[in-house]
Write a structure and sequence with these properties.
- With about 50 residues, this protein is an all-alpha fold.
- The chain has one domain (about 10-45).
- The chain is built from 2 helices and no strands.
- It has helices at about 1-35, 35-45.
- Helix 1 runs antiparallel to helix 2.
- It is elongated, with a radius of gyration of 15 Å.
Length: about 50
Amino acid sequence: MDEWSDKRGAYAIIVIIEGLFIIFPIARLEFNQWAPREWVGHLIIAGSF
Protein backbone atom coordinates (compact mmCIF):
# COMPACT_ATOMS: atom_id res chain seq x y z
CA MET A 1 0.00 0.00 0.00
CA ASP A 2 2.76 2.45 0.91
CA GLU A 3 4.55 1.95 -2.40
CA TRP A 4 1.34 2.62 -4.33
CA SER A 5 0.53 5.80 -2.38
CA ASP A 6 4.09 7.06 -2.94
CA LYS A 7 3.74 6.56 -6.69
CA ARG A 8 0.36 8.28 -6.66
CA GLY A 9 1.82 11.24 -4.75
CA ALA A 10 4.70 11.59 -7.21
CA TYR A 11 2.28 11.34 -10.13
CA ALA A 12 0.06 14.04 -8.61
CA ILE A 13 3.05 16.38 -8.22
CA ILE A 14 4.07 15.83 -11.86
CA VAL A 15 0.51 16.49 -13.05
CA ILE A 16 0.31 19.70 -10.98
CA ILE A 17 3.65 20.97 -12.32
CA GLU A 18 2.70 20.18 -15.92
CA GLY A 19 -0.67 21.82 -15.34
CA LEU A 20 1.04 25.00 -14.15
CA PHE A 21 3.24 25.10 -17.25
CA ILE A 22 0.10 24.78 -19.39
CA ILE A 23 -2.11 27.15 -17.38
CA PHE A 24 0.30 30.04 -16.77
CA PRO A 25 0.98 30.93 -20.45
CA ILE A 26 -2.76 30.76 -21.21
CA ALA A 27 -3.58 32.82 -18.13
CA ARG A 28 -0.95 35.37 -19.15
CA LEU A 29 -2.49 35.73 -22.61
CA GLU A 30 -5.98 36.12 -21.11
CA PHE A 31 -4.88 38.61 -18.45
CA ASN A 32 -2.89 40.66 -20.97
CA GLN A 33 -6.17 41.51 -22.68
CA TRP A 34 -8.10 42.88 -19.70
CA ALA A 35 -6.22 42.80 -16.40
CA PRO A 36 -4.23 45.63 -14.79
CA ARG A 37 -0.48 45.49 -15.36
CA GLU A 38 0.10 44.57 -11.70
CA TRP A 39 -1.85 41.34 -12.16
CA VAL A 40 0.20 40.39 -15.21
CA GLY A 41 3.38 41.04 -13.26
CA HIS A 42 2.24 38.76 -10.44
CA LEU A 43 1.39 36.00 -12.91
CA ILE A 44 4.75 36.26 -14.66
CA ILE A 45 6.57 36.21 -11.30
CA ALA A 46 4.54 33.21 -10.12
CA GLY A 47 5.02 31.43 -13.46
CA SER A 48 8.78 31.85 -13.36
CA PHE A 49 9.19 29.79 -10.18
